[in-house]
C-alpha cells in the first residue's frame, strides 16, 4: 500500500497536503470494502478502473478501535486505487486498464514530480519510492513528462504543465516544451467538461494571471477558443 502523487510532492515541498490517493498492489475495491465494513461510512467504486472512494463518517466512526490517533484527524474521504497500467486507443480517449505493479502505475502519471510514492505497510512504512527521477526534478524545480506520447495520451496535461509550473515557480524542461508545441492543437479534441475543469483549477490558484499569460505564450488559449 502506497500514498502517491500530490501528497508526497507537497509533503517534500513543505506545502499544505490536500490529496490522499492510496495505491494498492492488489484489489483496492476489496480493501475499501473491508474498511467500510469495519469503520462505516459510504463507498463508491468503479470496477473498470479498479478505484474506490471511501467517504469517512466521523460521527459514526467506532471509538472502540484503538488506531493511535483520533478519528477527527482523518480526511473526509480516501481514494483507493489498484495499481494499473493504461493504454489509449486515440488522443483524449478513456484509457484501457490492466493490473500492474507500483512502478508501472507511477509511469502512467503526468509529470515526474507526481511519480513519488511513500509505502505505508508493515516494516516498509515510510520508504520513498522514486522510479522515474521525480525527486531530482522536484529538487531542481523541473516540470518533465515521462514519455513522448504523454500529451497525445491526455492533452489536458498541456494545461496542467503550466499550472504546476506557475504554482511552484518551476520551469518546464526543454524537451517537454517541444512536445507541448507539437501537441497544442490536440486541445481541440478534449471535451468541454474536461477543459472547464482544468481552467477552473487554474483560476483557483492564488494568482491565476501568470498561468493564463503562459497558456497564451504556448498558443493554448486560442486552441480552446479562437476569441481567447
Quick recap of the structure?
The chain is α+β, with helices and mostly antiparallel strands and 228 residues long. It has ten helices and eleven strands.
Coarse morphology: globular
Q: Strand-residue fraction?
A: 15-25%
Task: Tell how many strands the DSSP assignment holds.
Answer: 11
Q: Quick check: average pLDDT? A: 92
User: Structural class given helices, strands, pairing?
Assistant: alpha+beta
Low-confidence stretches: none
Number of helices: 10
Strand order of the largest sheet: 3-4-5-2-1-8-9
Task: Estimate the helix proportion, in percent.
Answer: 25-40%
**Span from first to last CA?**
44 Å
| Major β-sheet annotation | 7 strands, mixed
SSE topology string? EHEHEEEEEHEEHEHHEHHHH
What value does the Rg take, in angstroms? 19 Å
How would you describe this protein?
Helix content is 36%, strand content 18%. It is an alpha+beta fold and 228 residues long. The strands form three sheets. The chain has a seven-stranded mixed sheet. The chain has helices at residues 6-12, 28-39, 102-107, 134-140, 150-153, 157-168, 174-183, 192-203, 209-217, 221-224; strands at 2-4, 21-24, 42-46, 51-55, 77-82, 84-87, 96-99, 117-119, 128-129, 142-143, 171-172. α6 packs across α9 (209-217).
List the helices and strands and how they pair.
Blueprint: E1 2-4, H1 6-12, E2 21-24, H2 28-39, E3 42-46, E4 51-55, E5 77-82, E6 84-87, E7 96-99, H3 102-107, E8 117-119, E9 128-129, H4 134-140, E10 142-143, H5 150-153, H6 157-168, E11 171-172, H7 174-183, H8 192-203, H9 209-217, H10 221-224
Parallel strand pairs: 2-5, 10-11
Antiparallel strand pairs: 1-2, 1-8, 3-4, 4-5, 6-7, 8-9
Amino acid at each position: 500500500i502506497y500514498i502517491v502523487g500530490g501528497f508526497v510532492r507537497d509533503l517534500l515541498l513543505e506545502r499544505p497536503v490536500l490529496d490522499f490517493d492510496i495505491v494498492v498492489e492488489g484489489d483496492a475495491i476489496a480493501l475499501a470494502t473491508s474498511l467500510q465494513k469495519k469503520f462505516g461510512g459510504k463507498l463508491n467504486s468503479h470496477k473498470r478502473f479498479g478505484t474506490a472512494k471511501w467517504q469517512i463518517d466521523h460521527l459514526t466512526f467506532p471509538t472502540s478501535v484503538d488506531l493511535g490517533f483520533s478519528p477527527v484527524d482523518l480526511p473526509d474521504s480516501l481514494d483507493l486505487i489498484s495499481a494499473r497500467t493504461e493504454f489509449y486507443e486515440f488522443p483524449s480517449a478513456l484509457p484501457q486498464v490492466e493490473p500492474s505493479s507500483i512502478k508501472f502505475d507511477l509511469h502512467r502519471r503526468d509529470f515526474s514530480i507526481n511519480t513519488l510514492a511513500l509505502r505505508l505497510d508493515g516494516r516498509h512504512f515510510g520508504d520513498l519510492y522514486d522510479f522515474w527521477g521525480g525527486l531530482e526534478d522536484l529538487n531542481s524545480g523541473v516540470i518533465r513528462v515521462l514519455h513522448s506520447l504523454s500529451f497525445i495520451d491526455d492533452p489536458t496535461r498541456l494545461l496542467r504543465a503550466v499550472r504546476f509550473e506557475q504554482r511552484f515557480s518551476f520551469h518546464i524542461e526543454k524537451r517537454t516544451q517541444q512536445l507541448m508545441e507539437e501537441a497544442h492543437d490536440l486541445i481541440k479534441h478534449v471535451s468541454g467538461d474536461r477543459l472547464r475543469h482544468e481552467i477552473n483549477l487554474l483560476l483557483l490558484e492564488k494568482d491565476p494571471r501568470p498561468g493564463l499569460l503562459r497558456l497564451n505564450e504556448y498558443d493554448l488559449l486560442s486552441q480552446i477558443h479562437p476569441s481567447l
